[in-house]
Known about the structure:
The protein is of the alpha+beta class. The protein contains six helices and eight strands; from the N terminus they run αααβαββαββαβββ. The chain has helices spanning 2-31, 46-51, 54-79, 103-106, 141-146, 203-208; strands at 88-99, 112-121, 126-136, 151-168, 173-191, 224-241, 247-259, 262-274. Strands 1-2-3-4-5-6-7-8 form an eight-stranded antiparallel beta barrel.
Amino acid sequence: MMAKFASVTATASALTLLVLTILLGAQGFAQTTPAGQTPAAPPAAPVPAAQQPAAPTSTAQQPASGQEPADEESTSRRKLRPHDYKNWTYNVGAGANVDSGATKTWVRGGGFVGAAGVARNANKYLGLRADFIFANLPLRDSTQELAQATGATSHVFAITLDPIINIPVTKLYGGYVLFGPAFYHRSGHLDSDTTVPGSACNAFWDWWGACSNVSIPLSGSFVNSSQNEFGYNFGGGVARKVPSGVEIYAEYRFMHGSHNGITTDFRPITIGVRW
């Protein structure tokens, strides 16, 4: 009977060992990838899927980044917007002189006038303008007889610095007024003068600037006149713009200078162009 029990025990142990061997082999077979098959990688696939929401986020942010160049472009456009006025304006004109004041006694009207200037504009209404003006002051025949001369030349150079007020009326027409200080240099020459040096002065010789005392200088220099005077000027004009952008203007001024009681007065009327 003991032999029979031992045989049964050995048989059971063999069966148990066989079952364990089969189970271990099945587990190893399940963990081993068969040859020729690509290993499945399902965990790698969700990674792009998880990153997909990031794309809409950057897409949603694109309008914000797109607005910055638009804002910069708008700001740049505002900065570069052209003025409705010119920073610098230049003018050249010519015309004739109308006599005035004490000068009218000795000088006839109609002398030639030439002018050139430049203006620095602060805006479309206000600016500062500098002008150089030449005016011929032809002596009257009666003046030459009083001076005992057969001919004469007389003229004045003026430099002005004026605030200018521009008055736009329409797109084509405008006006302006100006006023300010001025410097004058008046000079002249008498031809074939027969006045005797040392003779008593009269009103003409005073205006001519030849009489520093009560008599005409003995040196004979009285035939030439050269005087510097300070004074003022004021005036205005109208302008009309032509298709090329240049303006045609007409201007009238009153000019006055004085020194040691000697005065120079004239009123130039000029027509010219501004650009």
